[in-house]
Amino acid sequence: MQHNPPIRGGRHTARVVAVVWTLTVATAGFANAPTNSAGTLPYPGVSLCIAADPACEAVVIGVGEGGRSLTRYQPKFQGLIAPLDAKLRRAMRGISWHPGCPVPLDQLRVLTLDHWRPDGTRSVGHLIVAASVAPTVLAAFKHYFHVRFPITVMAPVHLFGASDVRSMAADNTSAFNCRKMTGGGRWSEHAFGTAVDINPLRNPYVKGQLVLPAAGKAWVQRKHVRPGMLVAGGAGVGVWQRMGWGWGGAWRTLQDFQHVSKTGR
After folding, report:
1. Is the entire prediction scored with pTM above 0.90?
2. Residues 76-111: pLDDT tens digits?
3. Residue ranges of domains in the chain
4. Which stretches within 148-175 are classed as H helix?
5. How do residues 226-256 score in pLDDT, each as one tens digit?
6. What are the start-end ranges of the E strands in the chain?
């Protein structure tokens, strides 16, 4: 989501051959999940696959006796960057993209990304972003996969009729959406494909008493950190900041906890 920012000098898998543009919304609540200051899922007590499997990789989860690394094996992350095919372009036209948008369809890319769900199951999602930031966004979600930062659902916003309200209510992580800023006349950063809204139900937009989506009120208290929450110093925010992106949760006059963008607006 992106509303007017505070005034501070301005505001699957890759193995899948064809992408099927349908939507299944995961509804794992996790409102009472254990506190975790990083906002990530705990590593399971046993490895999810075996070391000999070439589709697996070792993840260091801590240090044991004698300084030995503690590892778990989990499936390797797989991500794919591709141009928009004809079917996807037709699906987006007149909904999330239309003539006059600041970015032509040729300059957008679709990312196919492995991710963990809040219930600990593995899934595959899709994001549409500007070609110029596609490698950065892929790298961020690769990090999310490695540290087990969960994503409830990840689908292009045209599957919600380009409705920010519907997408947020489903806790849908999305990026490109050719629209103006809410409450403003200029293009949103999402219209350029250079912003991502992450788990918007768990990371609501908060301005005074206004909370969007409305069900995000259960997540306004940020001290009780649960999986999928973006918090200062947590795994979900730090990876973007290290790559030079800004986070809406750090704004002063309002907090857009779900929002990360290349420009910081």
Report:
1. no
2. 999 999 999 999 999 999 999 999 999 999 999 999
3. 43-261
4. 164-169
5. 999 999 999 999 999 999 999 999 999 999 9
6. 56-63, 69-75, 79-83, 108-116, 122-130, 153-154, 172-173, 195-197, 205-207, 210-212, 246-247, 255-256, 259-261
